[in-house]
Amino acid sequence: MELGISTFVETTPDPITGEVISHAKRIREVVEEIVLADQVGLDVFGVGEHHREDFAASSPAMLLAAAASQTKRIRLTSAVTVLSSADPVRVFQDFATLDAISNGRAEIMAGRGSFIESFPLFGFDLKDYDELFEENLELLLKIRESEKVTWRGGHRPAIHNLGVYPRPVQDPLPVWIGSGGNAESVVRAGMLGLPLVLAIIGGSPEHFKPLVKLYKRAASRAGHDVSKLPVASHSHGFIAETSEVAADKFFPSTQYVMNKLGRERGWGRYERATFDAARSFDGALYVGDPETVAEKIIHLRKNVGITRFMVHIPVGTMPHDEVMKAIELFGKEVAPIVREEVGKWEAEGGE
Predict the structure, then answer these.
(1) Cα separation of 113 and 84, whole Å?
(2) Are 308 and 298 a contacting pair, CB within 8 Å?
(3) pLDDT tens digit string along 229-268?
(4) In the structure, what pLDDT confidence band is assigned to residue 220 with cuts at 50, 70 and 90?
(5) Which one, 146, 247, 294, 337, has the greatest CB density within 10 A?
(6) For 159-210, what is each residue's pLDDT tens digit?
(7) Are 208 and 237 in contact (CB under 8 A)?
(8) What is the rounded distance in angstroms from the CA atom of residue 33 to the CA atom of residue 194?
């Protein structure tokens, strides 16, 4: 069971003071968070790509590279790379470079992304949303397979027997597929034999169990060894000394972000009752004291089949010292509980 952190490097107004942190300061804070995550023994740190004012990480590979030379063990991944609007050649080059700096710890999490700002920014048409992703994923995997590439598609100039450099330390460079729960994307990941990441940010995590089974069936039918295909999840969460403190600290910024996005997307207002229901044992918020959060992760491993769990800290803007303390608690107190219990369960034949 791998455990890690994900972030979108948000720069929304502080829900208490109204202060807006600069992009530069928040980026430097995230580098410190990655270094701490490595020091407390977490397995992976992911940075999501966005192209709007309230998110500072338009280039995850660069931010992760800043932390790579200051860390020793933690794996460094995008979460996600918006592959539909990216050049697969450049994506591969950026993460191969990160792989060199980190000596083999880079990963790409490829997804369509739930935000669309990158499409007009880079001159793409939203009507090509799905087609662009499929074509770019095909090219990315072709580059990963071979130093010299010959390829032709419908949206990008053809490549005729050209080399793509640098080559990564890892062979192959890990490419995961990020999904919000779309059955088609889950099946595609299985057929391609690529690891899967599910964004579980609402409802009950157990509702994703059929998708994990669907993924494994697709992989098995395509001839892939399912035992070698990890399944990850990404969920919002926060850890503090007590569950009450964790909830009270995490709610204001979470409410701000959810209501801001809700106004953009037509969602209902996000209230404390919604928040508290989601942090119940059956909910998708991993907010509480170390024992509570550990129990929910263990349940996720045993009942849904998740083998890597990434908690998204923070949602919105929270004081940096509180985020650092949550990461420390996750690594030093949550992780040992999860690893011990999951280790025992797997040794007894759990799958």
Answers:
(1) 8
(2) no
(3) 999 999 999 999 999 999 999 999 999 999 999 999 999 9
(4) very high
(5) 294
(6) 999 999 999 999 999 999 999 999 999 999 999 999 999 999 999 999 999 9
(7) no
(8) 28
Closest CA to 294 of 307, 304, 309: 309
CA distance 9 to 31: 10
Name the CA dihedral angle for 61, 142, 306, 113, rounded to a multiple of 10 degrees. 50
For strands 148-151 and 159-163, give the pairing: antiparallel
Cα 4 to the center of its chain, rounded Å: 9
Taking the C-alpha atoms of residue 269 and residue 198, their distance in angstroms, rounded to an integer, is 25
Eight-class DSSP state of 16: T
- Count the Cβ atoms, other than its own, within 10 Å of residue 24: 10
Answer whether 69's CB lies under 8 Å from 101's CB.
yes
pLDDT of residue 130: 93
Q: How many CA atoms lie within 13 A of 110 on its CB side?
A: 31
Whole-angstrom CA distances from 166 to 92, 145, 146, 172 are: 9, 13, 12, 13
CA distances from 328 to 15, 54, 336 (A): 24, 26, 12
pLDDT at 244: 98
Give the H/E segment covering residue 104.
none
DSSP secondary structure string, 22-84?
-HHHHHHHHHHHHHHHHHTT-SEEEE----STTB--S-HHHHHHHHHTT-SS-EEEES-EEGG
CA nearest 38: which of 7, 4, 1?
Answer: 4
- The distance from CA 298 to its chain's CA centroid, rounded to whole angstroms, is 19
pLDDT of residue 350: 87
Predicted local distance difference test score (pLDDT) of residue 238: 98
